[in-house]
Amino acid sequence: MSGRYRLTSVETVENEGTWLFTVRDERDEDVEVLLVPCEDDEGGAVEAWVNSCTHEAQPLYREGVGAAVREGAVVCPKHGSMFDTCSGYCDNGPAAETTLPSVEISVEDGQVYLTDGDVRFLRAGPSEDDDDDDGPSSTSHLRL
Ligand code: FES
């Protein structure tokens, strides 16, 4: 664990619906991560999930469009599977019975901090090394 990095505020995530940032993982690959509001019984505020559907590695958050969050779930724009914002679990559609990889964060005094010692904060917003949508470009996955 190498300390923590302030990402944004809970209020910003709630107001914008989602908040995207990019980290570099242990294999030196860029990984996009999505912050989403989570309202569970314990009053959780925000969770962080890797921005990649577990079905076909499609981004859940697209630049200029954002991510669709409906009824406490992130909706995959390609085939419509819905992932619980609090658990990352999907029980429907082609991605059923899978869970989005998570990145460790903490919330303190209304602020969201990256606390995952396996990744390093790169920037707010999307990865800059995305190729075109098609072709066998490298796909990044965190193995947690
Ligand atoms: S790519 Fe997300 S459900 Fe198929």
TrEMBL record:
| A molecular function (GO) term | 2 iron, 2 sulfur cluster binding
- The UniProt annotation puts the region (Disordered) at 122-144
Pfam families membership: Rieske
Swiss-Prot/TrEMBL keywords: 2Fe-2S, Iron, Iron-sulfur, Metal-binding
UniProt entry tagged with the keyword Metal-binding: yes
Question: What Gene3D superfamilies does this protein's entry cite?
Answer: Rieske [2Fe-2S] iron-sulphur domain
Instruction: Enumerate the PROSITE patterns for this protein.
Output: RIESKE
The Rieske domain covers which part of the protein?
A: 41-114
Q: Which InterPro entries match?
A: Rieske_2Fe-2S (IPR017941), Rieske_2Fe-2S_sf (IPR036922)
Q: What is this protein called?
A: Rieske domain-containing protein
Q: Which species is listed as the source? A: Halalkalicoccus jeotgali (strain DSM 18796 / CECT 7217 / JCM 14584 / KCTC 4019 / B3)
